[in-house]
Design a protein that fits this description.
Elements (H helix, E strand, L loop, with lengths): L1 H64 L4 H14 L4 E8 L4 E2 L7 H13 L3 E7 L2 E11 L14 E10 L1 H52 L7
Antiparallel strand pairs: 1-2, 1-5, 3-4, 4-5
Helix pairs in contact: 1-2, 1-4
């Protein structure tokens, strides 16, 4: 009976301590992964914004520096180089009438709605979309019809068109997955070590004195009044 009591008490103490540790580590891991996710998403948004700005500047410079009908070919070739960049899903350019230009593909669904909104308001748009279980960050930037552009674009529109850039989020998703795996490995390894250390410590500092006290109580109950 005493042996059973000792084992039960040891299990309860270990269970309580480990429960507190699991909850505490779980909260810490959640905050850590959430922070890393925000940082990675922010970095991806910055890199996509930089790429979008590069596309706008490339088109602007090409249109101003090019000559005659070669301007469209030059712009298309420049965009094809950017489209070959790692993780770039698509780079499309549309006129202020919504027509695809410079080798761009057609636009539909939410992308079409965002494109129309950007052309109407002139405000950049950014959103996420999922295709075939893969997540993409999409940004839409307006192409302003500046004074230097109006020699050719003299339709009175404030915007010549818009640029859509879509980047794969696969690297971010992979990094977040690896972060979760790393946290799980650290947690399980630390939990195992802590369980062994706590078990030995409890036996030496808590359970041993308790065993001695229970033994004294048991002897007194058996009639040995000399126990102290």
């Amino acid at each position: 009976m005493i042996s059973l009591f000792r084992k039960s008490l040891e299990a309860k103490i270990l269970g309580l301590v480990m429960g507190v540790i699991v909850v505490g580590f779980g909260i810490f891991a959640w905050f850590d992964v959430s922070r890393d996710t925000r940082d990675l998403n922010s970095q991806k948004e910055q890199s996509t914004s930089q790429l979008s700005s590069n596309v706008v500047n490339s088109i602007q410079n090409t249109m101003l520096a090019g000559a005659g009908t070669n301007k469209g070919v030059i712009a298309t070739n420049a965009l094809e180089k950017l489209r070959s960049s790692p993780e770039v899903d698509r780079i499309d350019v549309y006129s202020n009438q919504g027509q695809a230009v410079f080798g761009s593909s057609g636009v539909s669904g939410e992308a079409k709605e965002r494109m129309s909104e950007v052309l109407r308001t002139g405000d950049p748009a950014s959103y996420f979309e999922t295709r075939d279980d893969e997540k993409f960050l999409v940004q839409v930037l307006p192409l302003p019809n500046e004074v230097s552009c109006q020699a050719c674009h003299f339709d009175g529109q404030a915007r010549r068109g818009a640029v859509l850039v879509s980047n794969s989020m696969s690297s971010v998703t992979q990094a977040i997955h690896e972060d979760k795996v790393r946290m799980a490995e650290v947690f399980l390894g630390g939990l195992l070590i802590l369980l062994v250390v706590l078990g030995l410590s409890l036996r030496a500092t808590v359970l041993k004195p308790l065993r001695q006290m229970v033994g004294v109580i048991h002897n007194i109950a058996d009639g040995d009044l000399n126990e102290r």
